[in-house]
Amino acid sequence: MTFSRAQREVQLTGRGGTNFSPVLAYLEEHRDYDALIVYTDAYAPCPATPQNRRTRIMWLFVSEGNYRSCYPKLQHLGQGADLKATAAIAQSV
Angle 64-74/83-92 helices, nearest 10 degrees? Predict the structure, then answer.
């Protein structure tokens, strides 16, 4: 099939829609994982606390600002850091 009038420009809009619940639901079914690292801007609803507390969760935020504004609502689910703090830790080791 030939498309003679294909659109040459495409405009993408949107973004967001992050939902942490499916990831935590996956951990409920796969309890053999030791840890999970979630790299996020964290602009999403806070998920329910999983029953699986064996799998440790690290919330890694894209910036210090995101860490400061979003981590307080997620800290009951695991540890948190931003890229700046993580880079400083890696350099000191």
Answer: 100
Q: Please check whether residue 51 is in contact with residue 74, taking contact to mean a CB–CB distance below 8 angstroms.
A: no
Amino acid identity, residue 23? V
Expressed as residue numbers, the domain containing 60 is: 32-92
Helix segments in 1-93, DSSP class H: 21-29, 64-74, 83-92
**To which H or E segment does residue 40 belong?**
strand 35-40
Collapse the DSSP code of 45 into the 3-class scheme (helix H, G, I; strand E, B; otherwise coil) and give the result.
Answer: coil
Cβ–Cβ under 8 Å, residues 83 and 61: yes
Q: What is the number of structural domains in the chain?
A: 1
Of the candidates 53, 20, 48, the one whose C-alpha atom is nearest the C-alpha of residue 35 is 53
pLDDT tens by residue, 2-54: 656 666 676 655 566 788 999 899 989 988 889 999 988 888 888 888 888 88
Q: Is residue 3 part of a domain?
A: no
pTM confidence score: 0.69
